[in-house]
Write a structure and sequence with these properties.
131 residues; mainly alpha
């Protein structure tokens, strides 16, 4: 590998350019633990809602809440681990907005069609009873 860097003088040597001091490692570990705890809290909240308040929310509201929380966790991962949070505000919106709209559209279609299937079964059974 040393031959490659010696052969191409203009090629940047990223190993020498990287910051590997203890302070940088400490901030990186702190950021990773923060991400872990936030994701854990959101996941535990999802489990708590699923176990305790499943009947209170209703099936459709629970599905929408879980989809929203899952999308929030996905965006959080994108912002932290894919470094989108370090970009300018306009670029964040240009990247996130189309995906957000598409995901909500897909979730709406899945939930709507799932409910529609149950209604069709009810309609078919009601028609069969009246015949």
């Amino acid at each position: 590998m040393a031959d490659f860097f010696e052969e191409y003088e203009g090629y940047p040597n990223y190993e020498k350019m990287a910051i590997h001091d203890e302070a940088h490692g400490k901030t990186t570990r702190k950021k990773l633990w923060m991400v872990f705890w936030i994701m854990l809290v959101v996941t535990l909240f999802e489990l708590f809602i699923g176990f305790k308040y499943s009947e209170v929310l209703g099936e459709t509201n629970k599905e929408y809440l879980f989809i929203f929380l899952t999308i929030a966790k996905a965006f959080f991962i994108v912002f932290v681990f894919m470094h989108l949070g370090d970009e300018k505000k306009a670029l964040k919106y240009v990247i996130i907005a189309p995906y957000t709209l598409f995901i909500f559209y897909l979730a709406f279609m899945v939930i709507t069609e799932g409910v529609y299937t149950y209604h069709i079964k009810d309609i078919i059974s009601a028609v069969a009873m009246h015949q």
